[in-house]
Here is the input.
Amino acid sequence: MDRSDAHGHIMAYSTLIRVWLLLLLFTAILVFVSKTFHEALAVWAMLILTPLKAGLVFFYFMHLKFEKTFLKAMVIVTLGVLIVFIGLIFSDLSFR
Amino acid sequence: MSFEPGAVHKDLEGAKLGMWLFLFTEMVLFGGLFLLYSAYRAKYTADFHRSGQELNAVIGVANTIILLTSSLTVAVSVTALQRGNKKLSLICLGMTIVFGVAFLANKYIEWSAEIRHGMFPNSPELLNHPDGVKMFFGLYYSMTGLHGIHVVAGIILLSFMFDFVRRNKITTSDYIKLENAGLYWHLVDIIWIFLLPLFYLAA
Here is the structure.
């Protein structure tokens, strides 16, 4: 069971191991798809599975799921700014 | 004037927030490089595709498994210490450091092979290739190199944490240093999660 102590949330060993197994599974799918299927499908697998893997590490290994809304919001703003910039760059590149 | 160790005020929320603020600067630092990669990939799609095939995907995937597992061991180390199991915490921290060194050993083998093939920045061999290939290998060395420096920093940081836990400087009631070092290690893992498909699987 997950529980909390005086200054933080304690992750259960079983949760950590399940997250690790999921990360390995997603990596295996990613490698399999990129080596077997058409490039378009491989790109989609990458665009879906890679952020999902990063999200698992953020949420469980880095305890983000159990942090205050304020900290979660800061992570979203930081990553959001990056995504906006990537979007702006591509809107520029595609009209050259 | 002297204080009892327990009487020293510690702002644990502040310590953690400070670490996250540092991690945000790391995300933006690597984000800039990812931006550069995507822009040049869009410009030299065929060259990037071809160059990716020259990299050793087996080593790339092996290093991914190593880093993902090292993330698990550092997370278990924090949980173990929170639960008062110092021995398990030390074992897991030790394993994390060993995984980090194994990652760097693989990196050494991989880079040595690339360099033997003459594929390194400004090499006579690479200068004969089209611009897109030069860009790919430039980005490959700078991004995986910068990431490698972070792995080295993480290993040094975790070695200090190992010593602190061993000497009871980090304990069940005061483990924020270990937790923050763990956060850093996880971010190094996340960056690699993005590097893997960009360089090794995009061929």
Observations:
- The interface with chain A takes residues 12, 17, 20, 24, 27-28, 31, 34-35, 38-39, 42-43, 57, 61, 64-65, 68-69, 71-72, 74-76, 78-79, 82-83, 173, 176, 179, 182-183, 186-187, 189-190, 193-194, 196-197, 201-203 of chain B (CB under 8 Å).
